[in-house]
Amino acid sequence: MDIYRKIWRALKRTDAIKIVINYIVICFIAAIVLKFVDPNIKTYGDGLWYCFVASYTIGFGDIVVTTAIGKIITFIVVVHGMFVFAIMTGLIITYYNDFVNYRKYHKVEAFLDELESLPDLSKEELIKVKEKANVLKNRIYEKSEASMKKYK
Among residues 22, 21, 23, 73, which one has the least CA distance to residue 47? Predict the structure, then answer.
């Protein structure tokens, strides 16, 4: 449940919630219009189902629009759905990267705090700090070596 709360918070912070609500409204309106203009869509539920299937570009084939207006509406729903899902994917990836960078920053910050209090540490704590420094140095070295291999 916590992941949904984080996604909701990210949507609100970036105003992407407006895009999602716009997408939902377009699907509801398209379902209503399709119910009245296309003979293959007999109920409002069929129209919603068709908009869902079309927007995800699944195309099960159980409902197919046959009128020109139905095809135009389908095109609008599909294109809008592609934009919404692309934006949502980018948003989630960006927030995940920010979270990872935030954690890295705080680990380094905690390590630097330990270094500042170096004279106050006991011998065992000094050994732990030295081990952390070696681990950090090795990670930096490994990443720089991996980066150099890309350019060779």
Answer: 73
Q: Which of 5, 58, 78, 68 is nearest to 38 (CA)?
A: 68
pTM: 0.63
Tokens representing 44?
């409002």
Question: What is the rounded average pLDDT of the residues 124-139?
Answer: 80
Cβ-in-10-Å burial (0-12, 13-18, 19+) of 78 comes to middle
List b or e across 3-22, with b for residues whose CB sees 16 or more CB atoms inside 10 angstroms: eeeeeeebbeeeebeebeee
Cα separation, 89 vs 16, whole angstroms: 11
Q: Is 34 exposed, middle or buried (0-12, 13-18, 19+ CB in 10 A)?
A: buried
Q: Per residue in 26-37, pLDDT tens?
A: 999 999 999 999
